[in-house]
Write a structure and sequence with these properties.
It is built from 7 helices and 20 strands. The chain has about 300 residues and is an alpha+beta fold. It has 2 domains: about 120 residues, Ribosomal Protein S5, domain 2 (2-Layer Sandwich), CATH 3.30.230.20; about 180 residues, 2-Layer Sandwich (lpxc deacetylase, domain 1), CATH 3.30.1700.
Length: about 300
Amino acid sequence: MQSTLCSEIIFEGVGLHSGKPARMILRPAEANFGVWFRRTDVDDADQYIPALWHRVETSPLCTLIVNDSGIAVSTVEHIMAALAGCGVHNALIEIDGPEAPILDGSSVPFVRGILDAGVRKLAEPVKAIEILKTVEVRSDSGWARLSPNDRGLRMDFEIIFSDAAIGAQKKTLQLANGAFVRELSSSRTFCRASDVDAMRAAGKALGGTYENAVVVDGDKVLSPGGLRHDDEAVRHKMLDALGDLALAGAPIVGHYEGHKAGHAMTNALLHELFATPGSFRFVQCDAAQADQLPGAGVEAHEIPAVA
């Protein structure tokens, strides 16, 4: 069955890139509503922005969605990953500015809020996107691929960085039975120390701190407390990918592979999927299929403990 929230949830923090205060309220929604953002600070244009792949505009450091009136919300990937990973299919997200709060740089504060509030089943069955044939996109730096997989969503991701604190990392997960919450939700965004000054000079990462991002310098991790996982970087890339795939508008039943892929490449992959005849079909999930989707059976005790 489709799911929504049992009650509203409030999150307050600052935007990673703007550094400005941000207040976000998650509200329950009816079946087949999907996920929408509403910019409550806008009074002279359409406030509503659908959380969908074709509303994404190019942004190098985050996922930005824009409506026909030009009203945007950025850095939506972490909350989208939390909703998908907790099995929430319908929600209205009210926000008082152009950027979602970064909180601790991961999805775990959102997951904790969602599971503390509770997830409520709705009468309508879940519709999923079943991948029927392989689609792929490539760039000079990496590639991403979706191919058939009959057991929910499997994800394989590989990254390669010159900094020894990150290096080459690879991870595979079957995103079912709470795997997102246990394995990925607490992993934070990361960057090189050498990039921080350049980003701030360009007006980016103004809200970034060593507490809401993993900052590395060669073989050193500069953030207090070090890493939450030895392979936190690739886990965060997988978190981002789940959030970006959630913009498909329905859970994906398939195998996602990413090699040095980022937000733009995952969105390009969705464009390729929906432009390729015969590559997918919408399916109404029975109970066994629904049990293989991210979020099925998740419980609050599975949330990782973080400092």
